[in-house]
Amino acid sequence: MLHPGHGSYSKTISLIIVISLILGLVALCSVLGIEYFTTVTKVQKQQDDGETYSFSSSSNPNKNYMPADGYPRLLITSPCSGSSITIRFSKKILEAHGYSVFVGDEPGVPSRNHFYAAAKANLELKLDREPTPREIVVESFKLYNAKAFSKNKILLIKINHVWGETGKELTEMGAKFAYAHRSNILDRAICVVRDCFQKEKFGHQVYANGTVSDSCFGRRKSHDKIQAYIDDVDALVDYMTRRQSDDERRIRNYKTYIVPPAEIQSYEDLFHFEYTKSQVVFEQSVKAWCKLLGNFITVDEGIVREVLRSYQDSLPPLPPHSELVYNYNHVWQTIQDNYSSWMPYIRQEGES
Question: Taking the model in full, what pTM does it have?
């Protein structure tokens, strides 16, 4: 027969054993130098226009970061050029170097600029007149940067254009610049159609069955397959020709902001390592990242290599353009017949 209270006694003993085990594990982690209370999530997603999201983030409240230097870091890039994922990997690499990073939204886009109203109000008081959009952008940068610095973080932000006076004022703030662009203009054109970013319309969104879609930018979070239907191939080629000229002009104009050892880099070179086991390609991507961020910090190539390693060969090959363009055969034939110089930009099955 069990002694009265035996069940309670057993539970107490069990609880003591569990607590002892937990305390022992915590002590062991401390001895080994393991940082606990860390959450790690890994998300791998491939946008089927070739823009990837493959990012592992760690949240650790106990990590000691270096003091913020107060200088904003600006990534100059264009829409549909892989800007979001480039910012994410840049943040990861900067944090691996010991910096705490505050990622701001685009000051040049009022709907995404959290400090737009405050910047405008500040300037109206200072200037006693209506501030210009350029002045509001610069003031927003100052507010973003002050917010980051107050939290001992460095500001990392993307921007599409750097106008003359804006560039001068940002430089006076100590801003450091990087520039990334997308070399495959056809990928950009298809992305522009599927995200509804077109100013001049040469195509529209459709579902895989040809039905018109209106999901626009929301298609990036949709489970439906959204393709581009090219209404006018001549207009498509005209768009790509103008974008190519614009890229060349931007590179010439913005090169003055990219201080050596930093160099302008392409999205394709930065992320090629995600699609292959090739060690040669991996090392090329490591070099590309070191050059991209060379003006942001003193880059440690070993740290960059360590950050990128877990993402090597983590994604399937980029989809051929036949999967992204609903009327691909017509587009392919027209380009082959009339615009053969653009044929190398068409991605076939198995190419990356």
Answer: 0.81
